[in-house]
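quick one
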Amino acid sequence: MSADFHIRRLCIIGVGLIGGSLARALRKAGCVDTIIGSSRDHQHLQRAQALGVIDDYHTDMRQAATHADVIVLAVPMGAMGKVMAAIKPAITATTVITDVGSAKQGVITQMLTVMETLPAGFVPAHPIAGTEKSGVEASFAELFEQRRVIITPHAHTDPRASAIITNMWQHCGAKVTTMDAKHHDEVLAATSHLPHMLAYALVDTLARMNDRREIFAYAAGGFRDFTRIASSDPQMWHDICLTNREALTQILNIYITDLQQLRAAIERNDGEYLKATFNRAKAARDQYGE
Ligand code: NAP
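structure w/ NAP:
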């Protein structure tokens, strides 16, 4: 982490949970002069300014991005292409541009479609931090402390741009690692996207049962912990599933096969199979879990 790191003018498109938390964290670290916000809704931006998260805003994204040294795209995955097209005229040879999208290959493809060649200043990134809440009101400066941020530079990313984005996240207290975009999408499909599918499917299955009131009334701590992420924003998860379709369907297939084997073991009264599975899982959780 460079002690003299400084961003003169930062533009954040999408001042919600992630964009708002990034703005708060950088402000707290004292390493940014001016933060300009942008999104679709004037009132959301007004609120972000009133909270002190951003200094100024424009609903015209191109205007917001003009003269920015660093542009952060913190909008839902499905909106990235539209936003890139809107700010394209503001991107110069020296602009550093990054995003926070939860799947990386999709963002890179959208950038390539819009720009025709990937800008040297483009550093795709993904903070592995979040909550089930949305919007600037839910943002807080400590969100990224001790959390990982994965950057997935493309073949022609300028190392100086990667260093700026690495420094930016380190000043938010994050630990930055570099990964290939395809590998990122496979890892995140397994560790984040699959668990969200399980939580959504479980809650939806139970919510459609006749005795759902009783089921939820008796739900204890374990159920609450496991299903908390089913409160996450449906639009955001719609976008993530469709953007990371290939890796997510692959890991879902593996999981469905394993679940079917578990069901078959229960049906045939195969206690050995069950104990072996649970012991393996417990050992792995005890070894890798925090
Ligand atoms: P959020 O709280 O809902 O914020 C999204 C922001 O994007 C809002 O400020 C919204 O403002 C703006 N926006 C939405 N559609 C837009 C459009 N078409 N054009 C311009 N602005 C638009 O969502 P978030 O949780 O911060 O997620 C943002 C990104 O971070 C997503 O790509 C997500 O994959 C990624 N991410 C999320 C998490 C998490 O746990 N939440 C973790 C890591 C990464 P307006 O309504 O005013 O337009």
